[in-house]
Amino acid sequence: MLVVKAILRSFELVSGLRVNFHKSAVGAVGISQLDKCVYSKCLNCRQMELPFKYLDITIGGNPRRIALWDPIVDKIKSRLSRWKGRLLSLTGRMCLVKFVITALPLFYFSFFKAPIAVCNQIRRIQAKFLWGWGFEERKIA
User: 0.90 cut: is pTM over it?
Assistant: First the structure.
């Protein structure tokens, strides 16, 4: 850990940037809690616990659980509002589904394989929006 600290200090000297150890965190897998505590004290930073979020992705969670995918599904639902379904034409709704709603989960799919139930739920949301989201009566697909 002293070598890592020396490398970070060398980076500071070469680049002119500063590493803020108070905002940084140390995380490790497969070592004892005592070793993690020693490493965090050596670097003067806090310990990171699993699971944690990085770029809005939960790292250390089980991707086979549907609860891990709830933020993605909620993000998709938040992009679709009733007024968009009522005011957009079928072509406008199709473009929104194809280019916006389909692209949102691709970032998460590049890291984890989604359960079939989550994929079906996303498809159901897309189809519901495309075929008359926001209307009181049911539309025919």
Answer: no
